[in-house]
User: What shape does this take?
Amino acid sequence: MAEKLHMAVGIMGNAASFLLFAAPVLTFARVIRKKSTEEFSCVPYIISLSNCLIYTWYGFPVVSNKWENFPLVTINGLGILFEFSFIFIYLWFASAKRKIKVAVATISVVTAFCIVALVSSFAFHDHHHRKIFVGSVGLFVATAMYGSPLVVVKQVILTKSVEFMPFYLSFFSFLASSLWLAYGVLSHDLFLSTPNMLGSPLGFLQLVLYCIYRKNKGVTEETLKWDPEKNDDKTKQLQPQL
Assistant: This one.
């Protein structure tokens, strides 16, 4: 029964994470249509790529025991494809200066991952120590990824407006974090549950703020719902530039 519950939570976590990974498709459809990255930042996608690479490796039998963390491999493997696609599109339409910065950052992330994979494979000789090493790196990366929405949370509190915080991103972030937190608890795996102990409350905080300030958006709710581009015009002002 416990094993079936564990697998069911993993499948639901995969579904929620898929929706979260797919959310930027609207943004990049705009980039392709306008043939410009405008003021959008590539930083979130590079950080997300790093997270997906680490946790895909964490789920492989080289690190985990057999295929006990197979759901991690499937969803993070898909996440790698999403993030590489977004970065490629960004590089295609970015200015020359940004192309260099994004390329250097992406190569650095991939190189760092390769080092982690090699060290974990050859410097450690059992699953326990490999999981500790790779999990510790993943914990750091996941904390950075989940901590990034704090900039938006601060802006919402200061402006008392949710025009900078799309509801669906907050909702899927909270849902995915909560499900992976449950998955980590059921697995008795601190390296899976700990980062989501940060991500889940932050997602919930965003939803609470949305409920409090939902009537003060600067633009109408229907506009944000049906025209993501107008919402992007607002959110891009808050994104760190790369």
User: Anything to note?
Assistant: Residues 2-235 form one domain. Confidence is low (pLDDT under 50) at residues 219-242. Residues 183 and 204 are 18 Å apart (CA to CA).
